Amino acid sequence: MRSAHLIPLLALLVIAACDTTDPAPMVAVEDVVEGTGDTAAQGDQLTVHYRGSLRTGKEFLTTCGDANTPFTFTLGATTLIDGWNRGILGDDGASRMREAGIRLMSVPSALAWGARGGGCDENGENCDVPPNEDVIFLVQLLEVLKPGETSTLPPDVPCAPALLDGPGPF
């Protein structure tokens, strides 16, 4: 009689052991500089400086160039790659980025531009980020604004030295 109860349990264990699906992709994060200000949350307006590169070290996008113009966006907006939102919020939900912090984010292709690539011409060719390419971002969080707050940040905030000389393939 006891073995009759074990058969369904053994069947579940065999099925679980045979499951070969890949785990969901996650953004690996490392805080280069721990932030000390407000914590970023879904729906906040964030202003950042960043550098983006391929794993080969080829930089494809930066706000630290000649223009030195920070990028402002709403966290959780669908106009960004999912890897940005998840990297700033922390995939585990406990490691949300804080103002004045600098974070290295390794974003798998599935959470970046995937099979279509990024920064491609009108024919879908000559992409800045080739299809199925993982990307790395080094992000400096300059300001966190909760809904209804107004920015006091000057428009020409320079990139931090840690962002210019930071880790990664830069």
> Treating each run of at least 4 consecutive H or I residues as one helix, how many helices?
3
- Unreliable stretches (pLDDT < 50, length at least 5) are 5-19
Radius of gyration: 20 Å
Biggest sheet layout: 6 strands, antiparallel
- For the record, the CATH architecture stands as Roll
Number of domains: 1
Distance between the termini: 65 Å
Named CATH topology: Chitinase A, domain 3
What portion of residues is helical? 10-25%
Look at the structure and give the mean pLDDT. Answer: 84
User: What's the quaternary structure here?
Assistant: single chain
Structural class call reads: alpha+beta
Tell me, what is the CATH class? Alpha Beta
Strand fraction: 15-25%
Query: What is the number of strand segments?
Result: 6
Shape: globular
Query: Secondary-structure element order, as H and E?
Result: HEEEEHEEH
What does this structure look like?
It is a single chain. The chain is an alpha+beta fold. The protein has one domain: Roll (Chitinase A, domain 3), CATH 3.10.50.40. It has three helices and six strands, in the order αββββαββα. It has helices spanning 2-18, 82-89, 161-164; strands spanning 28-33, 45-54, 59-62, 71-74, 102-107, 135-145. Strands 1, 2, 3, 4, 5 and 6 form a six-stranded antiparallel beta sheet that branches. A hairpin with a 4-residue loop joins strand 2 and strand 3 (59-62). The chain is globular.
Descriptive labels:
6 strands; 17% helix; Chitinase A, domain 3; alpha+beta; 170 residues; single chain
